[in-house]
Specification:
alpha+beta; 6-stranded mixed β-sheet; 9% strand
């Protein structure tokens, strides 16, 4: 039996840098690369366990409130001061002036841009639809090579300066992690196998939409890269992932080659990373890119609306496969736009990546 959304929240801990990347770094002969990666893996493991333990308590809090739905964000930023106690020391609240800390200001702006897109284009107040306050913590741990959403808040590391730079430098990374919260409050896709890859892909989609929205870019103008500017100069690569051309984001002596497939012909069967959730997300990522660029104009207006309708429509199972999701996007396109260019473009996009829709 398939699990529909609105069931009990899954205790998910979502990071932007996949475990396989950190694992490879941790095996480097260079301690400047291996040590930060190893500490990041250990910290992520501890946080993942904490997320499982606290999931039930947090879920009971998440359902509260019948207050009027806010139309403005409520952001609070904290500084961990290179420690691991969350949230840290409060450094900026909603409406306060920018600080001298660029990381704080970038996180504040990224959270606001995500709130703005959801409200202005999709009529949703914050990730829960009820104006949930957005919390972010910067300067987490020492040389922490990741950013994550733990079900309650956003957390950003500074990177090690050798492979990764400050994780607030890319607005799509901020939006990607916050979009895990959007998924958690809607379809609540299980973080395993194809449903987990869809969970990751949805975050990449909304990460790209927020970036393009904030820059005023059309689908044709967007770079469709996730984490552009995040890799240090010594790395041979442009980003963590490419939605346009999965598998081409980096090819580096230390990091290895981007393993993402762009079609079902190259689907990766693995037990690692919850069944390859960060790897196989390249397939639905490319389908969205193909749809958005085929339709043209602003990606958030038609392609993004179709994805949003599926995510929030109540029909997407928690354990949905790529085919399940694809079929619902066709139905959503037909329902919203009729039997026109949009529905035809959706069918073609999924066909090009080898995901059946019938």
């Amino acid at each position: 039996m398939q699990l529909r959304q609105n069931s009990e929240f899954q205790p998910v801990f979502c990071t932007i840098v996949p475990p396989h990347v950190l694992d490879k770094l941790s095996r480097s002969d260079d301690p400047q690369l291996a040590d930060p990666a190893r500490r990041t893996l250990e910290a992520d493991g501890a946080r993942r366990h904490h997320r499982r333990v606290t999931a039930a308590a947090w879920t009971s809090q998440a359902a509260r409130t019948s207050d009027p739905v806010p139309t403005k964000p409520h952001r609070t930023l904290y500084d961990c001061r290179h420690g691991t106690d969350l949230p840290g020391v409060k450094v900026r609240d909603e409406g306060e002036e920018a600080t001298q800390d660029a990381s704080v200001n970038r996180a504040y702006a990224g959270l606001g841009a995500t709130f703005d897109l959801l409200l202005t284009e999709y009529g949703r107040s914050s990730i829960d639809g009820k104006g949930l306050p957005l919390i972010g913590s910067v300067h987490y741990d020492e040389k922490y090579n990741n950013a994550f959403f733990d079900g309650e808040q956003m957390v950003f590391g500074d990177g090690d300066g050798e492979i990764f730079l400050d994780f607030t430098v890319a607005i799509d990374v901020i939006a990607h992690e916050l979009a895990h919260g959007l998924t958690q409050y809607t379809a609540n896709l299980a973080y395993q196998g194809q449903s987990g890859a869809l969970n990751e892909s949805v975050s990449d989609v909304f990460g790209s939409l927020v970036k393009q929205y904030s820059l005023g870019q059309s689908a044709d103008q967007g770079d469709w890269l996730i984490g552009a500017g995040l890799l240090a100069p010594r790395v041979s690569g442009v980003a963590l992932r490419s939605m346009k051309a999965p598998g081409t984001a980096y090819d580096d002596d230390v990091l290895g080659k981007d393993p993402q497939p762009g079609s079902m012909d190259d689907y990766v069967d693995t037990d690692d990373d919850n069944g390859g959730v960060h790897i196989n997300s390249g397939i639905p990522n490319r389908a969205f890119y193909l749809l958005a660029t085929a339709l043209g104009g602003n990606a958030w207006e038609r392609a993004g609306r179709i994805w949003f309708d599926v995510l929030t429509g109540g029909e997407l199972a928690q354990d949905a496969s790529f085919t399940d999701f694809a079929k619902l996007t066709v139905a959503a396109a037909q329902h919203r736009f009729g039997e026109g260019d949009e529905a035809e473009a959706v069918l073609k996009a999924w066909s090009e990546v080898g995901v059946p829709t019938r």
